[in-house]
Structure formats: C-alpha cells, structure tokens
C-alpha cells in the first residue's frame, strides 16, 4: 500500500499541517550527545552516499589567516577508507550531489560545477561541468540518472532575495550523449529535491511575505520528446489568494514517492501528494510549540519520518516517528542545546542512510558559524523489549531442565509471531538450540537436556526484534550438580 493511502485523505486547504504541539501529554526529551564538529564555517547542502558509505557536506572553511576556501567533505559511516575525505577549492562553495554508484561527487562553484571521481575516500578532479554564473548559492541534486543544478546571477550584489534578474535550473550532459541545458527559469532562488523513480521538486523562495511561490513536482524522462522533465503537479500554499505563501525550508519524498513532506517556516510540516501535489492530512505529531521547522526526512526503507527544527532550551529540536501513521507510538524527541552539540537543526540538514538505521543531522550554533554532524541510531525510536521472570527448575547433569520466562514487548503488538532464539554454552562447547515459540501472553518454556558433566552452563536467550520492537538478550547462568548416587572415581 502506498504511504499516501495510509494517510487520512486529502483536504481542500492546509488544515492538515502541523506546526506546534499544544495541550499534548508531556513526553520525554533526550538531550543530544556531542557530535562531530565540522571544519566548515558555513553549510549549504548535504547528501548521503550509500554506495560509498559517506555523508557529503558542502561549505566554506575559514583558515587562521582569515582566508576563505571552499571545502566538500565526506564523513565515513561504515565500510573502508579514511574517516573523512575532502577536497579543497575556491570559495564560495555551494551545493553537493553524488551519483548512485558513489563514484562521482559534484560541488557547486560560482562559474561551474566541480566534478570529482571518488573511490574509498580518495577524490580526483575531473573536467568541470559548464554552468551559468551563480552568485546566490547553488543547489545540486542527482535524480533519474541526471544531474540538476540551480544558477542565479542577481542584477545587483544585494539582489539575491529580490525578484530582479533571472535564475535557472539546469541539467548536465551525460556520457551517453544526453545534452545539457536549462530546463526552467525563475525570478527568485530555487531549491531542489530529488526522489525515487526520478522525481524532482522545484521550490522557489518567496521574495516577500505576501508572495506565493508555486512548488512544482516533475519526473525525469529519457528526453525522447525533447523534454527532460514531465510535469506532474504544482501547489501554491496560500488559501484562495489570502495569507502568506510557502516559506520553504526543506522537502523530502517518502520511500514510495507517494508523499512529499515540506518544512514550511509558517505552517510547520505540510504533506502533499508526491505525484500530483494535492494537500494531504498530516497525522504526524508536530514539533513542540516555539520550535521553528527547518528540515524533514523520510527513510529510504519506508520505516521512519523525521522533523527537525530550531528551538531553545530543552525543547525538542528533532522528532523521529514511524512513517506508517497507524503505528501509535510517542516520537523519539531529541534536544540540541549544548556547546558540543549545536543549538538547532540547520535548514535541509537531515538525511537517512539507505537502510534507515541511521539518521544524519547537521546542527549549528546560534550564530550559524560552527557546525556539527550527529548520527542518530533509529533503533532508539523502537519500542523496547526485554526478558523478565526467567527461572529454571532442577539442574542435574545429564538430565532434562525446564526454563521459563516472559518476553515483554512494550506497548505495541509484534508484527509477527515472536520466537526466542537459544544458545547453550558449556565450557568450550557452544550449541544452537531450536527456537522457542512465545505464547500470546508473552510466556515461553524451554526444555533441554543438560550436558553430562556437572559445572556451569549458560543459556543465551535472544529476541531478534521486529518492525516496531528493538532486539533483546538475556543470559541465564545455571550451575549443574551431579545426579545423586553417582559414583565419583577418586585417585588411588
């Protein structure tokens, strides 16, 4: 079932948005631990390379002598290679993208797109990709087998936020002979977001509070008809021409492409149909009151949805919930309010790993001059499971033993019939026993034959977890005795 079908229908207006939690029951907020401080003094864009197991971040670095250089860094999150890969180039640097194989990394510069080959953390420069001049900060995205990028040269040095001058969205040529060129034009800066199946979002910035820019959804084509993009739908956020327009902060598609989440500075999280841009009801718990929305992310495995923001004090700047709204569980809430963690989630500063097991979050200090990368293990948002009341009967060497206990699954029903895995350890001997079924009330019974030799035996009970529960493990220590009447041969 598409995620859009699991959401509570569509609405005619933006009544399905979520921006502040009021009157809700108090939930625990977890303080964030220290993150990895980044060397950049600015943040423009991030992307996750699942093939190369790296998080790529683009920005500028300020050196001790005050000089400024562009820097793209790739932080390893698994696999082999150096912990951090980097490339130095002219400032300003804005925008980063990676191809699906992880073998090419692209970074936006003012007069071209820098192009690097990548292998195990080593970056080697290739011929730059031509692009129109840009003085306002590029965004890059690789989707549908093509590299798209923004360009904007304002009419004046202060004109990046004014509706004067023309910006564009361009597409790079490919090795297969697909041509380069501009695919659309805009009077304001444009943000880009890619999605599954070659989906592409274009989101212009509003140049005044009364402006109502139109968000567009497209699909990348083979260009056989001369058009690289197929138009799917557009949406203006102001209702009937009244009220403020879209105040874009971030956007992301669900794993199946049926839902587009938009972080709007006025409304909070807005959900749209991923194929037609219609408004959808929003069943997700909003960020706390007073936390300004900055980022949204769906996990590519379809399991998680995250919202990031900028708050103060111990208010949660990050929430993580199940993407399927039918799974009723309180969100994992994390607050960033520490000199070693940052104070807020930066706009467009969240991405999941491909398997959904990690959420990468970029935070900054209040001034936006220092940045940290955090890795959130999504298992922390799973309901806990544990073994309780584990006990055993008489333990006689070579005789049957009976172990009983209960698997406690917090809050939610398991998504499949649970089983307990069992491993017996007796000295150097390790034996995997058949899994034990768990009854509806959580109880289980293990029956086994103890080793012939008396001594210490350990039973390792395990639960592998399910879609909504985290795994659990319990070690049971059993001291066995010789059977009564056993003749022990002594020394002569």
TrEMBL record:
SUPFAM superfamilies (alphabetical) = DPP6 N-terminal domain-like (SSF82171)
Q: Which InterPro entries match?
A: WD40/YVTN_repeat-like_dom_sf
Task: Give the top-rank taxon of the lineage listed in the UniProt record for this protein.
Answer: Bacteria
Task: Supply the alphabetized keyword list.
Answer: Signal
List the signal peptide residues: 1-20
This chain belongs to the protein called WD40 repeat domain-containing protein
């Amino acid at each position: 079932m598409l995620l859009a079908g699991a959401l509570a229908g569509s609405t005619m207006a933006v009544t399905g948005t979520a921006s502040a939690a009021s009157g809700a029951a108090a939930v625990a907020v977890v303080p964030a631990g220290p993150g990895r401080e980044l060397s950049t003094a600015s943040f423009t864009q991030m992307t996750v390379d699942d093939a190369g197991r790296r998080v790529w971040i683009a920005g500028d670095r300020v050196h001790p002598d005050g000089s400024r250089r562009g820097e793209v860094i790739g932080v390893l999150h698994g696999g082999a290679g150096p912990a951090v890969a980097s490339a130095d180039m002219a400032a300003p640097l804005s925008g980063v993208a990676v191809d699906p194989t992880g073998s090419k990394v692209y970074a936006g510069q003012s007069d071209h797109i820098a192009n690097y080959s990548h292998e195990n953390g080593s970056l080697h420069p290739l011929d730059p990709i031509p692009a129109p001049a840009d003085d306002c900060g590029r965004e890059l995205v690789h989707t549908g087998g093509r590299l798209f990028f923004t360009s904007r040269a304002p009419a004046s040095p202060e004109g990046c936020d004014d509706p004067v001058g023309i910006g564009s969205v361009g597409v790079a040529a490919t090795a297969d002979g697909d041509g380069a060129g501009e695919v659309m034009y805009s009077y304001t800066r444009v943000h880009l977001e890619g999605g599954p199946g070659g989906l592409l979002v274009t989101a212009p910035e509003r140049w005044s509070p009364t402006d109502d820019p139109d968000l567009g959804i497209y699909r990348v084509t083979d260009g056989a008809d001369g058009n690289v993009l197929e138009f799917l739908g557009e949406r203006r956020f102001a209702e009937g021409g009244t009220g403020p327009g879209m105040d874009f902060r971030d956007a992301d598609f669900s794993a199946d492409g049926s839902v587009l989440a938009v972080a709007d500075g006025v409304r909070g999280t807005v959900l749209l149909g991923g194929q037609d841009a219609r408004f959808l009801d929003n069943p997700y718990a909003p960020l706390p009151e007073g936390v300004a929305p900055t980022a949204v992310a769906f996990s590519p495995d379809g399991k998680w949805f995250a919202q990031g923001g900028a708050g103060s004090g111990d208010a949660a700047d990050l929430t993580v919930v199940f993407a399927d709204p039918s799974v009723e569980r309180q969100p994992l809430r994390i607050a960033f309010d520490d000199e070693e963690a940052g104070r807020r989630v930066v706009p467009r500063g969240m991405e999941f790993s491909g398997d959904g097991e990690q959420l990468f979050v970029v935070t900054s200090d209040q001034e936006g001059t220092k940045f940290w990368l955090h890795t959130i293990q999504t298992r922390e948002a799973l309901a806990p499971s544990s073994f309780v009341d584990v006990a055993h009967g008489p333990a006689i060497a070579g005789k049957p033993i009976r172990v009983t206990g209960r698997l406690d699954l917090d809050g939610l029903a398991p998504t499949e019939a649970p089983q307990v895995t069992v491993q017996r350890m007796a000295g150097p001997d390790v034996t995997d026993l058949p899994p034990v079924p768990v009854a509806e009330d959580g109880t289980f019974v293990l029956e086994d034959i103890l080793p012939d030799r008396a001594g210490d035996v350990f039973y390792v009970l395990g639960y592998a977890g399910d879609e909504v529960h985290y795994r659990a493990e319990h070690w049971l220590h059993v001291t066995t005795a010789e059977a009564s009447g056993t003749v022990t041969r002594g020394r002569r």
